[in-house]
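Hypothesis: this fold can be encoded by more than one sequence.
Test: take the structure tokens below, design a sequence, compare later.
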């Protein structure tokens, strides 16, 4: 079983589709040697050095977290059923409403579209939010994705750059009390009631 890496006050939560067999075996997110997640988030500016999967908890020091849409491990994400994605989307909304990070980055356009019933999604920042959390769609860093490392880094850097001024000025950082108040006041979007 792979555990979420979540805490109050995060600037971004990266949401993978589901664990691969390597991750399921090791117990760490994005553990397959061909997965470029750790390299991409480092080169995009989220971490000062490239973390190894077994160092995943150090992500919290950078105010980043990880979760997944579906807990069931598979060889390929294409093995995940539509109903699993829809159910995972509802559970993800619950997690995000509880923790209210500044941004949620769903790693994979097709998974996002299916989980949230959002046809025609574009890459990057979405119009929808979950409470006060901005939603982003970024390319999946899996080695099966044909996107080049440079393209992945550029997409992730756009998200990192969007939060640099806020992170340095503290404008969007919530105290623990403010965080709890934000959770209580965050309205459920009509979109998610359709799921």
């Amino acid at each position: 079983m792979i555990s979420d890496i979540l805490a109050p006050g995060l600037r971004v939560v990266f949401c993978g589709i589901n664990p691969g067999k390597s991750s399921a075996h090791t117990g760490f997110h994005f553990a397959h040697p061909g997965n470029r997640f750790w390299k991409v988030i480092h080169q995009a500016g989220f971490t000062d050095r490239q973390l190894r999967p077994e160092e995943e908890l150090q992500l919290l020091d950078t105010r980043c977290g990880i979760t997944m849409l579906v807990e069931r491990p598979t060889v390929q994400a294409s093995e995940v059923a539509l109903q699993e994605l829809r159910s995972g989307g509802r559970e993800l909304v619950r997690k995000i409403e509880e923790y209210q990070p500044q941004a949620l980055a769903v790693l994979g356009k097709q998974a996002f579209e299916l989980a949230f019933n959002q046809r025609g999604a574009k890459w990057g920042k979405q119009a929808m939010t979950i409470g006060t959390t901005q939603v982003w769609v970024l390319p999946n860093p899996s080695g099966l994705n044909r996107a080049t490392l440079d393209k992945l880094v550029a997409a992730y850097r756009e998200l990192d750059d969007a939060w640099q001024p806020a992170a340095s000025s503290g404008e969007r950082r919530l105290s623990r009390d403010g965080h709890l108040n934000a959770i209580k006041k965050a309205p459920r979007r009509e979109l998610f009631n359709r799921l």
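Strands lie at 12-16, 64-68, 103-107, 124-130, 133-138. The longest strand covers residues 124-130.
Hypothesis status: open.
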